[in-house]
C-alpha cells in the first residue's frame, strides 16, 4: 500500500535478507521494496526505490554498511533513515554508525516485532538504540569519553561528518528546559518511545514529539541518542 513504510534491505547474506523480508512483509504497514548485497548496490537500489528506511548490515564485502551510510546521509540528507542491523554488539561499530549518521542501531538477535517497531519508529523520525547498545552509550557518556569512529569511517571522505552522538552540547544550561521538557528528557534517556512517554505522562503523542523537538533545539542536540548521553552526563538520570 502507498502509505506503508518502504524498506530497503542491505545485507551480503541472501538467506538473511530473504528471512528479514518475509518477516517485514508480514507486518502491517511495512513493505520491503528492494534488496542489495553490499553498500554500493544498496545506494543504487535506494536511488531507484526511494524508501523510507534502509536496514543496513555493517560488515559486507566491497563497500561496507558504515561507508554506505555515510554516503547516503551526505548525498540524501532529507532521504531515508538508516537502521543499522548487525550481529555484532561492538562499541566501535556503534560509534562509527552514529558518527556516519545512522538513526538506529539494532542487533540481529532482536525479535521480529522489535525490528518492525524499530522501523516504524525510525520512519516516524525517532532515533533509537537496542537496549544492549544503549548501555554502551550511557557508560561512555557518564565517563565523559569521546571515542572516535573507526578509521575507515573517519577517513572515508574529506566531507566533515555529522557530530558524534557523544559530543552532546554542554553550553546551553539545562535550566532553559521547562519541568515537562525535563521529564520528557528523563524518559527518553530511560529508553522509552514516544508512545510510552505519552502513556506515562497522560499526554498525546504529538505533544511528546513537540517536547522532544524543543529539548533537542534548546540543548543543541542532533537526535534522541545525543539526548540520552546529555541526560546521563548532566545527572538527569543515574547510571546505576
Can you walk through the features of this model?
The model is unreliable at 145-172 (pLDDT under 50). The protein is an alpha/beta fold and 240 residues long. The protein has helices spanning 14-25, 39-49, 65-75, 91-100, 112-123, 131-143, 151-154, 179-189, 194-201, 205-219, 224-233, and strands at residues 5-10, 30-36, 53-56, 81-86, 104-107, 128-129. The chain contains eleven helices and six strands. It folds into two domains: 5-134, Rossmann fold (3-Layer(aba) Sandwich), CATH 3.40.50.2300; 168-233, Arc Repressor Mutant, subunit A (Orthogonal Bundle). The termini are far apart. The chain has a six-stranded parallel beta sheet with strand order 2-1-3-4-5-6, sandwiched between helices. Helix 5 (112-123) links the parallel strand 5 and strand 6.
| Main sheet strand line-up | 2-1-3-4-5-6
Shape descriptor: globular
Name the CATH class of the largest domain: Alpha Beta
Please indicate the percent range of residues in DSSP E strands (runs of 2 or more).
Answer: 5-15%
| CATH level-four homologous superfamily name of the largest domain | Response regulator
**Class from helix and strand fractions:** alpha/beta
Which architecture of the largest domain per CATH? 3-Layer(aba) Sandwich
Figure out the total of helices.
11
Radius of gyration computed on alpha carbons: 17 Å
